[in-house]
Amino acid sequence: MRLLIADDDPEAVDVLRAALGRLGHAVDAVGDGKGALHLSAVVSYDAILLDVNLPPPDGFDVCRQLRAREQWTPVLFLTGRGDLADRVTGLDAGGDDYVTKPVSIDELEARLRALARRAPTGRPTVVEAGGIVVDPGNRSVRRDGVEISLTPKEFLLLEMLARNEGRAVSRSRLHEELWDFAFDARSNVIEALVRRLRAKVDEPFGRASIETVRGLGYRLNATR
User: Fold this and answer.
1) Are 179 and 92 members of one domain?
2) Parallel, antiparallel, or unpaired: how do β-strands 26-30 and 47-50 relate?
3) What is the pLDDT of residue 121?
């Protein structure tokens, strides 16, 4: 998932960014409300993690402005303010979930998955493409009944391809979904990731499902 964290506590952001990054997510971060509104206008995020106590505009107002411009990216308030009145205000402002710090990374990850499923382009819990079964809930992959061990980035790449079975996924979209702004788009990291995924998902099964679409990107053709 491509995530945006808006929080003015650099230490908390560093911890959260590292933990979510280890799970394979691409994470951008800003420290104020203006930055959150700007980045969310130019980048398509899967979810926004929003603190309430932001330099103006605060988190509640950021969420109101997002909804006013008809931007429906799921918003999860992640904040130290846990009073009932704050929770009600956050949800009434257009938030999709409200979590009080501290929160375990496992719970946060589960809540993000739930938000992704409830988003306007709602995603099924388990994705099946031919003999490949991708289960984001427990981060498992099976092909023809055989379990396959993948790294977080490999898993997210396969999930993207499986959700778009038969359709090409552009290299630029892979860049946007799987890496943050620190990623060098000129590098060959995407090609290397695809090679590793083919070595685990295709080659042991004598298949060639992950196709290169010349000049565009990659496609999962589960019939091959």
Assistant:
1) no
2) unpaired
3) 53
